[in-house]
Amino acid sequence: MRLTSLLLAAFLSLTVARAEVRLVGSDLLGKDFTTALAAYSKRNDLGIKLALEGSRAGMEQLQSGRADLGLMVFSPGEKPPEAPYVVLPVAYHTLAVVVPATLPLSQITFGQLNTIYGDDAQSGLKRWSDLGVTGEWANRNILPNITGPGGGITYDLFRYTVLAAPSLKPTVGVQTTLSNTLTRIRGDEGGIAVLPLMPATQTRLKTLLVARGAQDVAFGPTPENLHSGDYPVRLPVYLVFRKDAAKQLQTTLRYLLSEEAVPLWEGAQLVPLPIQARNQMIFDLEVL
């Protein structure tokens, strides 16, 4: 009898471990993210079934019981769901303002970016001297570029978060891919570019600190600054699930918050939470 009970317990444990996890949510994460997560799930027998078709549709599926876990993006001002749901940030969409490494400029404000990029700007910042730069860079033209809508959410995040109105100047170079943007700014002396993230290998470029206003402190897009809200441009991706499903989802949640998953998020041009915050969330999940 005891042997039968032990075998039954082992069978039930295996069944739970291999239970299907229906994961829904934002289509902004992209095809590469979906492919990589599906491959990881298959290798590790996690049973994740992915349907990243949009946050609104995903939330409806969660509420109707047709999904177990969501990776959601809520628009600014949109209120995340309350109990019985648990809502935890897991990574951030953001952008980096990038210039040549030799340019003697370390930071920039929303207002200055609006003047450089925004079609509604009343006066232009045409040369680097207009931003207080001296020396050999002073008389060089500021040549603005941005990765376009085909390169992810950066284009719209910049237009609707940083600019006073979402229209760009006709002189802004809208590049089709991140690679094209990097090529353009490396080739154009005096260039400035808005990218999803600064690739680690770009030693000839640097990321400017960004401040919302002229009197505000400027910050860079580090995991710590994004998570604290100090960097002024971020759009969180949230884990959303019912509290009573936390135990069933432990394996998947721990992976998405783990150091092992960092390349998954970075490959989708997102910044994961700092490791201390992720470790704290993993600990907190144990007691839900």
In the CATH hierarchy, the third-tier topology of the largest domain is known as: D-Maltodextrin-Binding Protein, domain 2
Q: Please give the count of helices.
A: 10
Describe the main β-sheet briefly: 6 strands, mixed
Average pLDDT rating: 91
Q: Give, in spatial order, the strands making up the sheet with the most strands.
A: 2-1-3-12-4-13
Structural class by sheet pairing and helices: alpha/beta
CATH class of the largest domain: Alpha Beta
How many structural domains are formed by the residues?
2
**Annotation, overall tally of beta strands:** 13
CATH superfamily of the largest domain: Periplasmic binding protein-like II
CATH architecture of the largest domain: 3-Layer(aba) Sandwich
Rounded Rg = 22 Å
* Distance, first to last CA: 34 Å
How would you describe this protein?
The chain is an alpha/beta fold and 288 residues long. The chain folds into two domains: 142 residues, 3-Layer(aba) Sandwich (D-Maltodextrin-Binding Protein, domain 2), CATH 3.40.190.10; 133 residues, 3-Layer(aba) Sandwich (D-Maltodextrin-Binding Protein, domain 2). 33% of the residues lie in helices and 20% in strands. The protein has ten helices and 13 strands. The chain has a six-stranded mixed beta sheet with strand order 2-1-3-12-4-13, sandwiched between helices. Helix 2 links the parallel strand 1 and strand 2. The radius of gyration is 22 Å and the shape is elongated. The two termini are 34 Å apart. The relative contact order is 0.18. The N terminus is likely disordered.
